[in-house]
Each structure stands twice: as C-alpha cells, then as structure tokens.
Design goal:
mainly alpha, 7 helices, 3% strand
Length: 154
C-alpha cells in the first residue's frame, strides 16, 4: 500500500507542477493537457486499459523517455483522467455551497488511539482541519486559492 501512496503523491505533485507551469506561461491548464489526455484515452481504448497501465505503456516510448516536460504533462493528464480537477463531490460542494466543509478524513477507527468520529472540519485559512483530532486536508494550493477567491476569504 505504501508504494501506491507514494506513486499517487508523485502523480499529484506532477499535476500541481503542470498547473504552475500553465499559470507561469499564461495558458489554460486543461487546454495545455488536452493532447496528452487524448493520447492516454487512445491508449486506454486500444488496449482496454485503465489510466495508470495506459501511462505505463506511454512511458515505454522513446518520445516519452526523451522529454522531461512530456513526462510531467502525461502524469498530470493521468491524474486528470482519474480525478478531474474540481469534479469530486467535495470540491463541487466547496465551490458551490457557501459554508460547506468536508468531513474529517482521519481513517483511524474512533475506538483506536488517535481515532476520530469524523466530524465536519473547519477552514483554517489554508486547509480544512478537524478540531477533534487535528487531521488536515491536503487540497492543492491552486484549489484553495480559487476557493478563497470564490467566497472572498482573505
């Protein structure tokens, strides 16, 4: 399980880096990723694969291996296929329902030490935090920036 978590963290870091790159270059992030998303979808369809295995197929190509930027953008595109930006229910609720806050994400049983009964969290100005157990959400900075702008939070 640890290996999968580390891989997911790297993929999400690539997505965040791609968003930063788009912002620096004054490009639309999803528009910048579109060609990479199209290629991944084609590989998925042609080989009856899910997102990560399709990325692994693409990663075996010479073109992929010779382009650090391409690698970054393919990884970001993979994350967008798995969990599109702002399409999760929680993110939609945060952006559309004033005062909404997600539940605590602590997955330790409430009866175990450090466990929690997963109450609603409170926005601390940077992330959502559980006042009961101290769990803190991990939304990307660009999402938090949009959230704060949407609800005029300074």
């Amino acid at each position: 399980m640890e290996k999968q978590v580390k891989m997911a963290a790297k993929l999400y870091a690539c997505r965040d880096a791609a968003k930063t790159l788009a912002k620096i270059n004054k490009r639309d992030y999803l528009e910048m990723l579109e060609p990479y998303i199209v290629i991944l979808k084609q590989v998925m369809l042609a080989n009856n694969l899910e997102e990560i295995p399709a990325l692994l197929v693409v990663s075996g190509t010479k073109t992929y291996q010779e382009s650090d930027m391409g690698q970054l953008l393919f990884m970001a595109a993979t994350v967008e296929l798995i969990e599109p930006t702002e399409t999760s229910i929680v993110r939609k609720n945060l952006m559309n329902e004033r005062g909404y806050s997600p539940y605590c994400g602590n997955d330790i049983s409430r009866t175990a030490p450090g466990g929690c009964d997963n109450p609603r969290t409170v926005f601390n100005g940077e992330q959502f935090e559980c006042k009961k157990c101290g769990w803190v959400s991990g939304f990307p900075l660009d999402f938090i920036t949009r959230y704060k702008a949407k609800w005029n939070i300074s």
